């Protein structure tokens, strides 16, 4: 999956920021476990693309998947959030996750070679073979949104 992000308030030079993060919200983990490899400005990245700077590799995150549903009908359906201040039940085990990947060096490399105000982010799921998983063999990568956060150094 490839998304294009706007650099809304980009630093003028790659050295003007101290940290850059990609934040993934609502990451689904109901399926198989996988590694999500992230490449910047390489929309053609696939599972066999080397994890190398020249290929745009920026980092990865891992999802330890639920492996499919083993329970009765409705067992894996997400329930509503706690209904009141005295409802202390834990969140449902399949509540979507939040992942952060620090991409500082990779973003600096891209900024040194391009002056565009957008950046292409390719996220490629790598699923290990697991015959015990009940999850489907399709693409397990699902998330609600991705954001780029850049922390600029104070002057």
Layout of helices and strands:
Elements: E1 2-6, E2 17-27, E3 34-40, E4 57-63, E5 97-102, H1 104-113, E6 118-126, E7 145-152
Antiparallel strand pairs: 1-6, 2-5, 2-7, 3-4, 3-6
Description:
With 155 residues, this protein is mainly β. Helix content is 6%, strand content 34%. It has one helix at 104-113, and strands at residues 2-6, 17-27, 34-40, 57-63, 97-102, 118-126, 145-152. The strands form two sheets. A four-stranded antiparallel sheet has the order 1-6-3-4. The chain has a three-stranded antiparallel sheet with strand order 5-2-7, with helices on one face. The longest helix is centred in the last third of the chain and has 10 residues, at 104-113. It is flat, with a radius of gyration of 18 Å. It starts with a strand and ends with a strand. The model has no long low-confidence stretch (mean pLDDT 83).
In short, what is this structure?
Helices cover 6% and strands 34% of the residues.
What descriptive keywords fit this protein?
mainly beta, 7 strands, 155 residues, four-stranded antiparallel β-sheet, 6% helix, three-stranded antiparallel β-sheet
Determine the mean pLDDT.
83
Number of helices: 1
Task: Specify the helix fraction band.
Answer: under 10%
Number of strands: 7
CA-to-CA gap between the ends? 37 Å
Structural class: mainly beta
Query: Compute the gyration radius: what is it?
Result: 18 Å
Helix and strand run: EEEEEHEE
- Tell me, what's the shape? flat
* Strand arrangement across the biggest beta sheet: 1-6-3-4
Strand content: 25-35%
Largest sheet: 4 strands, antiparallel
Which spans of ≥5 residues are poorly predicted at pLDDT below 50?
Answer: none
């Amino acid at each position: 999956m490839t998304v294009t992000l706007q650099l809304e308030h980009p630093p003028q030079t790659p050295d003007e920021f101290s940290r850059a993060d990609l934040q993934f919200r609502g990451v689904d983990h109901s399926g198989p476990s996988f590694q999500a490899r992230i490449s910047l400005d390489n929309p053609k990245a696939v599972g066999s693309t080397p994890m190398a700077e020249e290929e745009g590799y920026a980092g990865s995150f891992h999802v330890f998947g639920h492996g499919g549903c083993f329970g009765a009908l409705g067992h894996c359906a997400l329930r509503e959030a706690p209904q009141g201040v005295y409802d202390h039940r834990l969140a449902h085990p399949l509540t979507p996750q939040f992942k952060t990947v620090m991409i500082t060096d990779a973003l600096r490399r891209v900024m040194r070679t391009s002056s565009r105000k957008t950046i292409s982010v390719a996220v490629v799921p790598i699923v290990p073979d697991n015959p015990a998983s009940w999850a489907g063999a399709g693409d397990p990568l699902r998330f609600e949104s991705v954001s780029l956060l850049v922390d600029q150094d104070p002057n």
